[in-house]
Amino acid sequence: MRIAIAVSLIVVGCSRGATPARPPAQPPAANAAELSPALAPLVWWLGDWESDAGTEHWIAADGAVYGVALSRDGAFEVMIIDDGEGSGPADGVLRFLAMPGGERQVEFRARDVGEAAATFENPQHDFPKAIAYERAGAELKATLSGDGARTIGFSFRPTTRTAAPELEEADRKFAADVDAGGVDAWVNWFAPDGGMMRASGRVERAAIEGFMKDVFAEGMLAWAPIASGRAGAIGFTVGKATFTPSAGTAGWKSTYVTIWKQQPDGAWKVGFDTGRVVNAPTTRTP
Fold it and tell me: What is the value of pTM for the model shown?
């Protein structure tokens, strides 16, 4: 239930027909073991990256890849790469879900995936119609492209992400309060302008109770962060969640990303929350 397009930070790096440059040998990403078989070819993408505009952080969590872009002016983008349709089984089709500012969700599907480059497209979208990332030496390059020659490109250099223990503490307190107070506590942790992303679109704070009350009526939702980062008064946690039914219904696991915003009184509140159910691979018989 903890359910992202980085319009300002994305890559179609090489020209058609060109062979992507092989990235230099390096230690495997710390959380590469979290990749599903379909997502494993994107291991070169994981990590923390910086440009003059801000940072991007790509973190794998139990079969999904979460991308968080934090700009220097306080804006954010959330992106998810997954290989399943909603809560359905993993089907091997890579989907890039882009959520600029947490306001809407646009899906792009993989067109080409190579050893150091990947392109996703949505011909029906206005702009971009294609998003591509490419590993070029030590750099990560992103390109947004549309009709004709319209393109926007970005280059990122590796950076070191500093964990944000204050946000991880807030996330754990969020979980503890919800364990004790249910849906009311869930809503109370959201900032006045906060919201969630569901398959049907963005859910504003005023409507969150209606979307979540059945979840808390049917069982317990518990979660904990596995990664965090911060840029001034905005930051994020990525983590794993488990729903345990009280009786009669099936439980499930999920992963999530939460965007945190510091309020005028210094407290941290949820500015945006989204995630993906952990999908089991489709069973195929010989």
Answer: 0.88
List the beta bridge partners of residue 277: 254
Q: Which CATH architecture has domain 165-277?
A: Roll (3.10)
pLDDT tens digits for range 233-257: 999 999 999 999 998 778 899 999 9
- Give the Cα separation of 59 and 75 in Å (integer): 19
Domain spanning 32-158, CATH architecture: Beta Barrel (2.40)
Per-residue pLDDT reduced to its tens digit, 192-230: 999 999 988 999 999 999 999 999 999 999 999 999 999
Closest CA to 116 of 226, 243, 23, 11: 23
3-state secondary structure at position 213: helix
Contacts of 251 (CB under 8 A, 6+ apart): 219, 242, 243, 244, 245
Domain residue spans of the chain:
32-158, 165-277
- Other C-beta atoms closer than 10 Å to the C-beta of 177 total 15
* Distance (Å, whole) CA 26 – CA 189: 40
Identity at 145, one-letter amino acid code: S
